[in-house]
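[Protein data]
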Amino acid sequence: MMNKKPRESTLFRLVIISSVAFLLTVLAMVAAAFAPPNSELTRFFDQHALEMLGTEVVGILGFGVLAMAFDRRPISRSEVPPPANQHPESLP
């Protein structure tokens, strides 16, 4: 029997992309904290950091909820284990 790896949906990929963008933004903000106060990176994050982080968090949460809502794979009876108190032979 060959195990098939389920294909990830596009929404789960968007969750991953949003999470990576969030992580890179936070790391860039840490780098900007060590930059000179008048650098372009510091000024950029002073103006846009909250909007960027907020957008990324909303993206992670929104895509995550949508991915869970739309990822309804049909499960065949052979994939569902029988309850602990029943034997597989007694199932219809």
Summary: Helices lie at 10-33, 40-70.
